[in-house]
Amino acid sequence: MSGYRVHPTAEVSDRATIGEGASIWHQAQVRENASVGPGCIIGKGVYIGEGVSVGANCKVQNYSCVYEGATLEDGVFVGPEVVFTNDRYPRAINPDGTLKAASDWECQGATVRYGAAIGSRSVILPGVTIGRWALIAAGSVVTNDVPDHGIVAGNPARSMGWVCVCARRLDAALRCPACARRYHRTETGLAPA
User: Fold this and answer.
1) Kindly report the CA angle at 43 between 41 and 44, in degrees rounded to 5?
2) How far apart, in whole angstroms, are the C-alpha atoms of residue 159 and residue 155?
3) What is the pLDDT of residue 104?
4) DSSP states of 98-122 as a string?
């Protein structure tokens, strides 16, 4: 375990890849074929599902569940108790009453782009893409894609405007009142001017 830290109560598969300088805290679980990038902090009780990709310098806070199929790019923040779902049509049993097997469902994970942040207790539905530097307000249920620098809130989450890389809401002229950065519209949301 040279180069990264794993708390003795954490469970990390020997088939997972953990990057240099990462920290995996109390009672976290990292499953087979998952990848946790360098410099990441995986908080207490976090679940990282099989095959999940977590980029460099991400923070996944206490008790969040990042289920199979999800991809977090570099620099993503996931607040406490966030859940990434991966099944649009969940059922425990088939129509004949038999227990569903892994082959009876289609895994559809979410993607979170560079620098985005997801507030505490949010739920991210399958197939959603959250854009670069986007901000998801605490308690949101994200059912649709979020553009780069978009800020969304609510259940279902709706657009509340635009956000700067410093996490402050932009004014109507797409300028940050805190750091004075300016932005312009693009096909994927906003970009620095």
Assistant:
1) 155
2) 11
3) 81
4) PBP-GGGS-----EE-TT-EE-TT-
Q: Is the pLDDT assigned to residue 3 strictly greater than 80?
A: yes
Amino acid sitting at position 134:
A
> Torsions phi, psi of 103, nearest 5?
-75, -10
Length of the chain: 193
pLDDT, tens digit (0-9, with 9 covering 90-100), for 176-186: 999 999 999 99
Give the pLDDT of residue 2: 63
pLDDT of 1 over the 60 cut:
no
CB atoms within 10 A of CB 157: 25
Dihedrals phi, psi of 102, to nearest 5 degrees: -55, -30
Residues 6+ away with beta carbon under 8 Å from 29 = 10, 11, 12, 46, 47, 48
d(CA 56, CA 19): 8
Task: Assess contact for 142 and 158: CB atoms under 8 A.
Answer: no
Q: Which two tokens stand for residue 153?
A: 């809130």
**Residue closest to 47 by CA, chosen among 32, 25, 61, 66:** 66
Answer for the pair 38, 18: CB distance below 8 angstroms, yes or no: no
Q: Which residues of 29-60 are buried (b: 16+ CB within 10 A; e: fewer)?
A: bbbeebbbbbbbbbbbbbbbbbbbbbbbbbbb
pTM passes above 0.85? yes
Q: Which has the closest alpha carbon to 130: 147, 115, 155, 108?
A: 147
